[in-house]
Amino acid sequence: MAVNKCIKYLLFGFNLLLWMSGCIILGVSIYLKVNPVFGGLLPGLNLLIAVGTIVTVLGFLGCFGAIRESRVMLMLFFVGLLLIFVLLAVAGILGAVGVKKIEEWLAEKLLPLRNQSSLFQTFMQNLEERAKCCGLIHGPSDWGSTVPASCDCHDTTRECKLADGQRKVYLRPCIKLVTSVLAKGIFITMGIAFGIAGLMIFGMAFAMTLYCQIGETYATLS
Prior knowledge:
The chain crosses the membrane at residues 9-32, 44-67, 74-97, 186-212. One of its GO terms (cellular component) is plasma membrane. This is Tetraspanin. This protein has helices at residues 5-34, 45-68, 71-98, 102-110, 118-131, 175-221, and strands at 160-163, 167-170. The protein has 222 residues and is mostly helical. The chain folds into 2 domains: 5-103 and 179-221; 112-176, Cd81 Antigen, Extracellular Domain, Chain: A (Orthogonal Bundle), CATH 1.10.1450. It has a two-stranded antiparallel ribbon. Strand 1 and strand 2 form a beta hairpin.
């Protein structure tokens, strides 16, 4: 039985896209890792770097195995895809469960705000000015004894309080806005992860089909 050329080149194309995706994941995660604003705040960057590296290697194995019709490479590719599929499924489930813990994580990592980098403080102050809020979790007290001018209350329809004994600042914290943005990002990431997991099912099916066809071809020739 001859190897199906259609499956062979479909698998090659799939793995070429997989390899490119791995390179993109790896590049973006490394960029975020070295970025002074996000590097210390996103706990999953090391995992993303690992996933990007693994996906890149798997893409290479799949491309090489498909073109060279190597059963060893195809089996390694299949096992690797299966492991990544399981990890993505577990990560998606944990991500869905962990959405409710965003506020606790932010409080643990980001308070007090004065101890964060100057870039993050600038980010928070810009957010406060646009969203007309102050602080992250508890309000102005998140800044400590010195509340920045970005918290100054210029909208009389908002709830405000006195700070430093002479100026009014917004009382409402920015947590709802931040958590909604983070939750949206998590759900988008989960959707992408499950989409990739679905594609991996096709990749595993193609790989195993080609693996079996190569084995039957060798058996016929022998």
